[in-house]
Write a structure and sequence with these properties.
single chain; alpha+beta; six-stranded antiparallel sheet; four-stranded antiparallel sheet; 5 helices; globular
Length: 190
């Protein structure tokens, strides 16, 4: 079985589990996530590989991290994620990508990401739930962080934090790749 098959099965099993734990019907989760009921059925039955945006919306609606949704099994309190097991969820032909390095539920979803944006590329994000915070640290290049209609330059070595419950995007308007690490903290769903 391929890694993608394992991820598809884990995603289906975990979406179903967390939906039941939250007491959500398919219709409730679909409305909260802005995803069709049919798409949720396909995901829960492991018949589709949804986009990163869809997985983020479902995780936000359930109040769990993407790591939790993709986790093969719940493990011990200390979890080491070998480099080759970091999950690449988005990439472009030019070489941009992101990788989910680690995540936990403490007390709400907390995720750490490794990103590369090639020159001229970017990645938009829909607003996350109220109270979501993102932290970004630029290792190389200069990131243009677009938050709520305003551009912010984040040069190499600098960090930024922002409330991510508004439209935002990451862009590389320079001539060298941008490498950055991002942490995302999502509030617990009640």
């Amino acid at each position: 079985m391929s890694d993608l098959d394992l991820l598809t099965q884990s995603l289906g099993r975990n979406v179903k589990r967390w939906r039941a734990e939250r007491g959500f019907t398919l219709e409730t989760l679909a409305a909260r996530a802005g995803v069709s009921r049919g798409m949720l059925i396909q995901i829960e039955q492991a018949r589709t590989n949804p986009s990163l945006g869809t997985v983020v919306k479902i995780g936000d609606a359930l109040g769990v991290s993407i790591t939790t949704l993709l986790d093969y099994e719940q493990g011990p309190r200390v979890r080491i994620v070998p480099a080759e097991q970091a999950v690449r969820l988005w990439h472009t032909d030019a070489g941009s990508y992101n990788r989910l390095l680690a995540g936990t539920e403490a007390p709400g979803p907390l995720e750490m990401w490794d990103w590369r944006l090639m020159p001229g590329e970017g990645s938009p994000s829909d607003p996350h739930p109220a109270g979501t915070v993102e932290l970004v640290h630029v290792l190389a290049g200069e990131l243009t962080l677009h938050v709520d209609g305003v551009d912010h330059r984040v040069p190499q070595g600098a960090s930024a934090s922002f409330e991510a419950d508004t439209p935002h995007a990451y862009a590389n308007r320079g001539e060298v790749p941008v490498d950055m690490v991002m942490a995302v903290s999502v509030p617990l769903v009640h």
